[in-house]
Design brief:
- The complex is a heterodimer.
- Chain A is mainly alpha-helical.
- Among the domains of chain A are: 78 residues, Four Helix Bundle (Hemerythrin (Met), subunit A); 41 residues.
- Chain A has 6 helices and no strands.
- In chain A, α1 runs antiparallel to α2 and α2 runs antiparallel to α3.
- Chain A is globular and about 60 Å long.
- Chain B is mainly α.
- Chain B has a domain of 63 residues.
- Chain B is built from 3 helices and no strands.
- Chain B starts with a helix and ends in a 13-residue tail after the last helix.
- Classes of the chains: A mainly alpha, B mainly alpha.
- Chains A and B meet through α1, α2, α3, α4 and α5 of A and α1, α2 and α3 of B.
Chain lengths: 173, 100
């Protein structure tokens, strides 16, 4: 077993364990912290795949900004545990069975049918970080300029929308 | 040297854990976090495929997905805070009426 594969398996174990920790934690704060760990391991996967820019964007945007927002809202709303649902008692076992089926199905189809031949980046093909950044920047501002600008408008709209939604209405309530 | 299959299987497992989170948890915040997990699993698959075909397009696409996810979180959390203000609860079972 090569060092690469050992690293991959260790990280995969951490990623799955932290995802399950997120799913099973009773306390929402613990869930958020497990999710941060999961995002960081995914960032390391991006580094292994030769995408240093995406890895750093993942850490700053996901593990940083988005999770801080989540933690902030959890603190704001309180972390009281919800009472057990009595509305659909059969939903939980059914969901678990269907999820296992979905996992088997997706794995089977992706591995047998949609499989691109070959391996991901070899360890001897080292990635030049500056070159990766330069190439991404060139693509982003030439071929993908329109989507880039649309995303900037989308972020502005989301910001305005979030402020409007949480704003106190004058005289209401 | 890691076969791309491993990344795809990992991505599928993470995605299914996200689906399971949406289905079995009742806390709206945890459901939202599970959606983030699913987005991440899809991103991982995209970058892995892009790495196999030696193309930068996959990384560009993931960059856009991250930006859209950030916008989605801002609006979604604002909605959850509003729902909490009117219902005093973030249990999704309570959100059964159309009128706020």
């Amino acid at each position: 077993m090569t060092l690469d594969l050992a690293l991959f398996l260790l990280l995969a174990l951490i990623a799955i364990a932290s995802a399950l920790g997120m799913l099973l934690s009773k306390n929402a704060v613990y869930s958020a912290l497990y999710l941060v760990l999961n995002f960081v391991t995914v960032a390391v996967f991006y580094l292994l795949l030769g995408a240093p820019f995406i890895a750093m964007a993942q850490i700053t945007v996901y593990a940083g900004a988005i999770m801080v927002l989540f933690l902030f809202v959890i603190m704001l709303l309180g972390t009281d545990e919800l009472p057990k649902s009595q509305v659909l008692p059969w939903q939980r076992p059914l969901a678990i069975v269907l999820s296992v089926l979905l996992a088997a199905e997706a794995t089977f189809l992706l591995v047998t049918k949609a499989r691109p031949a070959g391996n991901v980046l070899q360890p001897d093909e080292s990635v030049n970080t500056m070159e990766n950044l330069r190439q991404l920047g060139m693509l982003l501002f030439t071929d993908y300029l329109l989507p880039f600008e649309v995303v900037s408008i989308l972020l502005l709209v989301a910001m305005v929308g979030a402020i409007i939604l949480t704003k106190k209405e004058k005289g209401a309530r | 040297m890691i076969p791309v299959d491993y990344y795809i299987i990992l991505s599928a497992i993470l995605f299914v854990i996200g689906v399971l989170g949406v289905l079995i948890r009742r806390n709206a915040l945890i459901i939202f976090m599970s959606i983030e997990l699913m987005l991440n699993a899809a991103n991982l698959a995209i970058v892995a495929f892009g790495s196999v075909i030696k193309s930068f397009d996959g990384q560009i696409f993931v960059f856009f997905v991250i930006a859209v996810a950030a916008a989605e979180v801002a609006v979604g959390l604002a909605l959850i805070v509003e729902i909490f203000k009117s219902k005093r609860s973030i249990d999704v079972d309570q959100m059964s009426s159309l009128k706020g």
